[in-house]
Every structure is written in C-alpha cells, then in structure tokens.
Design a protein that fits this description.
Helices cover 29% and strands 14% of the residues. It is an alpha+beta fold.
C-alpha cells in the first residue's frame, strides 16, 4: 500500500485475514535527491525492470505485474 493519508483510513480487514493477505506500507521519500541520483546513474536500476510493454498492451502488463514475485513492469508510450 503506497500513499500518504491526512485522515483516518477505514477498511474492512476481514479479507486480509481470510485470504491471508500481507499488507506492506511504504512511504515515498524526498524526490529531488532521488531524481538526481537516478540522473547521475549512481544506482543501477534497469535490472529491477522485469518486463516492458507497449502502452497498447497495458492489460497484459497489469496481468504480468499481478504475478507473485514480479519485479517492476513498465508501460512504454508509442
């Protein structure tokens, strides 16, 4: 789950328990330093992209991304 909420979040947690879903929270950091590091090429990130799809194959990309253990899947505009 990735987002920042300013108020309380109300959800029905029964499906988390019944379907044994693991919910992991993540918060974005400071974007300017991250973009600078990426622009400099200081960190190799291409190996994190498992598959790239053209935008027209967006549904297939989402289906791929749903698979357990999948790394990043990207959509490329045409």
């Amino acid at each position: 789950m990735k987002s920042t909420y300013s108020g309380a979040l109300t959800i029905d947690g029964s499906s988390l328990v019944v379907d044994e879903i693991t919910l992991v929270g993540s918060r974005c950091g400071h974007f300017p330093p991250a973009v600078e590091i990426l622009a400099k090429g200081s960190i190799e990130v291409r190996s994190l992209i498992e598959k790239q799809y053209p935008l027209r194959d967006g549904l297939a990309a989402f289906e791929h991304a749903r698979q357990r253990g999948t790394l990043k899947v990207t959509l490329q505009p045409e």
